[in-house]
Amino acid sequence: MAFRIIVGSLVLCVVTAPALAQSCGSTPIAPALPSVAEIAKKPPTESAAAKHDAFAEIKNWQADLKTYRACVTNLSKQDKQQLATVDKDKKPELFSHLREEASASDRGYNDSVNMEETVVNEFHAIQAAYCARKDVDKASCPK
Q: Whole-prediction pTM value?
């Protein structure tokens, strides 16, 4: 029975691999950050830990974004290269399809950049709230 499960899993991987190669998946989910109010209300050590944890989560998320962006950039590039070789008068459906795929990849990239900017701005607000406190260690605050 276990052999059948393993063989079935391998067959499934071989069959679905080409489809997975055509997709980058969804944009990585942004980390949940504490609010400025939460940073202000927590005791100093908890506030410092929350700020540090937020920073670490953002860094991990940015690594996932880098991978995602490389994928969508590659897909867009491939679609645009194919688009250059397709005669839009002879194959209008293929031409339209490739143009839509390239646009979707570009939108995914741009949306991820906008999301990253929003998250980084939220972190900077958290950092400013932390650094504005009188009862915290300011060693991690920008000079």
A: 0.76
